[in-house]
Each structure stands twice: as structure tokens, then as C-alpha cells.
Amino acid sequence: MKLIAIAGPPSAGKTAVARQVIRQLQGEHRIAYLKVDVVRAFEDQELKQEFSIPTRIVYSGDLCPDHTGIMVLLDGLSWAEEQGADLLIYESAGLCLRCTPFTTQALGVVVVSAVSGSSTPLKMAPMIALADIAVVTRVDLVSQAEKEVFRECIREVSPGVDIIETNAVQGTGLRYLVERITRAEEVTDPATIVLRGSPPLGVCTICVGKKEIGWQHHFGVLRQLDNADHLFRGD
């Protein structure tokens, strides 16, 4: 089985990209789709109805959705295998832009919208830095100059990442992504899959219920106003 992990900010076009991949590869692969979100999502129902493929959704609730994805991904691979799939598309909620679901033995795809601002790739650097492919959506809504600036910002974060520009609704340009998926390696041993990078801590005093503001009321990993620079140094 091949594992494709799709991450990116909310409303960047992740599901539109997944939909195009499914549409173009359904004849060649038995595809399953796993979505992790926070409170409510409908992508699983839509894709199941449109393509008649097995789909699952997991709600993280009070837990970080990307941490939830890390916890359920091994079960997700087992579920996809039970469904007879040879390609599992896993889509994350992608909320904090620091967590990433990219693992070994998988193809990591980050989706970012061209209309989100030219500095967006710099704001979501960890997610881009650990990806294999950056898919830039809504390029039909920006000028050529804006596309070039956006592309250079991605290169600044990750010089070696493959960049694909698309109007994901129509699927233009995504044949390159489909070709890359076709060439992707299969999972050899799910038990040995690990994250490519180190996620942020999942537990702090705020996580366990303390509501007071100000670092003086908390303990563990603290952030003060005067010492809050360089929160991300990269892996």
C-alpha cells in the first residue's frame, strides 16, 4: 500500500487536491480516504458518495488534531488494508501550521493557497520544510508576478521541495502530482513508520485546564514576552 499525507491550512484546497487525485487514479488503484478534523467535517461523505470508495473521519475534539492523526494513523493503515486498498490518502486538519503529519514511508504533500498572501510559506515553514511536494492552489486568481514571489518564498523555506501550481477545482497541473504518486514507494513495514520531524509538546498546564493568563501562573515549557523569539529553529 502507498501512503499519501496531505496537510495545509484550513480552506487551502486540500480536499480539492485529494478529489482530483482520486479521480485520476481510481482506475489504477483501490483508494481509501482518512480525514482527521476537530469538530465537524463532511469530506468523507462527499468523497464516498462521489467515488464509492471507503472513507473514514476522526474528530479530535479536545486534542490537537495533528496529534490525533499521529495516534490513529497506524490503525488507519490497518483499516485501509482491510478495505482492500492499495493507496491510502490521509488528510490532516492542519490548523497550527507547526504540526505536520509527514512520516517516513509516505509521500508528504503540503497544500497552500496562492491568495493567502506572499508571506504565508514563511509563516508555515515547518509544514513546508518536511514535505516532498508543495501544491499551490488558486493560481488562476493571482498575477504571474505574485506567483513568482510566492514560489520564491517556498524555495526560501525548502529549496528542494517540488512545487506544483494548480487550479485544484479544474485539476490543471496536477498530472505532475499524479505521476509522483505513481512513482512513490509502498509502505514496507507500518510498525517502523515514524514522524519526519519533532512535533511541539502536546501537554502543558493550559492543556490540563488552567485558565489564568500570564506565564507566572503556569509551569513546564514557558514563554515570556521578552524571550519569545526564535520559537522555530527547524529540524
Brief summary of the model shown:
The chain is built from seven helices and seven strands. With 235 residues, it is an alpha/beta fold.
Description:
With 235 residues, this protein is of the alpha/beta class. 30% of the residues lie in helices and 17% in strands. The chain has seven helices and seven strands; from the N terminus they run βαβαβαββααβαβα. It has a seven-stranded parallel beta sheet with strand order 3-2-4-1-5-6-7, sandwiched between helices. It is globular. It starts with a strand and ends in a 52-residue tail after the last helix.
Topology:
Blueprint: E1 2-7, H1 14-25, E2 31-37, H2 43-51, E3 55-59, H3 65-82, E4 87-91, E5 107-113, H4 120-123, H5 125-129, E6 133-137, H6 144-157, E7 162-165, H7 175-183
Parallel strand pairs: 1-4, 1-5, 2-3, 2-4, 5-6, 6-7
H/E topology pattern: EHEHEHEEHHEHEH
What does the average pLDDT come to?
A: 87
Continuous helix count? 7
Order of the strands making up the biggest sheet: 3-2-4-1-5-6-7
- Total strand segments: 7
Main pleated-sheet profile: 7 strands, parallel
Radius of gyration: 18 Å
Poorly predicted runs: 230-235
Give short descriptive properties of this protein.
alpha/beta; seven-stranded parallel beta sheet; 7 strands; disordered C terminus; 235 residues
